[in-house]
Amino acid sequence: MSNKKDYYEVLGITKSASKEEIKKAFHKLAHKLHPDKATGDVEKFKEVSEAYSILSDDKKRAEYDSYGRVFSDGAGPGPGAGFGGGAAGFDFSQFQDAFQNGFGFDFGDVFTDFFGNQGPGRSRRGRDISIDLELTFAESVFGVRRKVLLAKSAVCETCKGSGAEPKTELITCTHCNGTGKLHETTNSFFGTISMESPCRTCHATGKIPKEKCHTCRGEGVYRKQEEIEIAVPSGIDGGEMIRLTGAGEAVAGGTSGDLYVKIHVRPDPRFKKDGTNIVTELNIKLTDALLGAQYTIPTLDGDDTVTIPQGVTHGELLKIVGKGIPNPRGKRGDFYVRIKITLPHKLSRTAKGLVEKLKEEGI
Question: Deepest of 139, 169, 295, 356, by most Cβ within 10 A of its Cβ?
Fold first, then answer.
């Protein structure tokens, strides 16, 4: 790459870009342009790598900004810099730092993205599935069992995932010669990499069925409608997630993914949660606040009666024991009634006279 190349333009950033912005720009372009990717471009990948090697180094960047080239390595970067043994202008540790330290994940993830999850000892795993589930307020308090119908890849019930027609003979896989493994060579900027991956034809078993399963056509999995029961625990809150291990997408020769269920609770205008307790509000008349009374109120267990003591104050909480939210040990919280005293907007002549008498008595 020519020294006259605008490194900032190569990474698609401005000259005032921060180190973090430089890392992010390089990370995005490196994943897109890497030669082992479908969208890869060898020359452009070299360009962005060279640009990053300069702009991520404070000293080299300062020299480049001042003179349009770098002198730190004894010579400016030449065409194809950053690849091969000790080529000037590309520090591999910076490349690793951009991925690992700058973006919070292990550098091994880069190999997974570029070459697939095919390393020795790695088993295949199906995709996870995420769904949303809406509950009523009462269902979130007491828990509930719900059944959902999902269209997903599932293990074939006929062959139990083997891909073989029942009672058929198993023969040696001709693709891997019965080893269950394939040896592949990949050329990348790291050099020539020899990789060992599981054979997908026999799912790393070294054997294939002489006659394929008629249901899944030898795949071991097939797409179907599957009913799954979800046990929602008591006391769950909106936004919480339930994980069902192995209830996600199935994959031949591997383990199924997981099903994640995000909970949404439909609000109930009558009730609010407060830890393991439930709070409701009750509007009462001024006379009932002064003299006391009994009110029938709704709870999650049905209607109940609450006694209003004489002289109750506005905002005071009255407790009904054991009518709240169950905890994991089965014990329930309490049900609280917050008193709201309703004052009349207008008084009749008689009522006004009675209130004035109360006032005279200092009440």
Answer: 139
Each residue's pLDDT tens digit, 280-313: 999 999 999 999 999 999 999 999 999 999 999 9
Could you tell me the two tokens for 180?
Answer: 């269950």
Residue located via tokens 């002549």: 349
Positive or negative, the CA dihedral 83, 87, 93, 99 is negative
Q: How far is CA 292 from the centre of its chain?
A: 53
The yes-or-no verdict on residue 229 having pLDDT over 70 is yes
CA distances from 250 to 160, 172, 216, 335 (A): 12, 25, 13, 45
Separation of alpha carbons 87 and 249, rounded Å: 45
pLDDT in tens, 335-360: 999 999 998 888 898 988 888 888 88
Rounded-to-integer distance, Cα 320 and Cα 102, Å:
54
Angle at 102 between CA 98 and CA 106, to 5 degrees: 80
One-letter amino acid of 173? C
